[in-house]
Amino acid sequence: MFTVIRRLVLPQSWVCSSKKLSEISSGCLERSEWESEMDDTTTKIIDILKKHMKEPRDDITTETALADLKIESIDLAMIVFELEDTFGIEIPYNANDTEEASAFKSVGSVVDKVKQVIAQSPKAAAKA
User: Fold this and answer.
1) Mind listing the pLDDT tens digit for each residue in 84-128?
2) What is the CATH number for 51?
3) What pTM did the predictor assign?
4) Whole-number Å distance between alpha carbons of 120 and 113
5) Cα Rg of the chain, angstroms
6) Which of 1, 8, 33, 92 has the highest local Cβ count within 10 Å?
7) How far apart are CA 49 and CA 89, in angstroms?
8) Domain residues for 80?
């Protein structure tokens, strides 16, 4: 059984219905806390991506490859600038560096990278 939370599909075993996160020992996620923490950042990032797409779509998930969104390299640079402004962070990005460029292969990898940079920047955490 699966649960759909704002276009993200989770195995039912990951979602708890009424327990608080601190009371959970089985490894499942508290729905309301997971939604508010995960979806705000993810939603902002997807909205930024949509603004820079040639043909915006509504079926974007964290699994969607940026190549499938037809985002060109110049658009990716603009996206990085907007992510930095939105979240108050500085994202190290060099399209010629394969390790840095690999952090921008899918929507999920962009979300992970932004969250990683936010976690390293206490000032940015308050803005997100």
Assistant:
1) 999 999 998 776 777 777 778 899 999 999 999 999 986 655 555
2) 1.10.1200.10
3) 0.64
4) 11
5) 16
6) 8
7) 17
8) 35-127
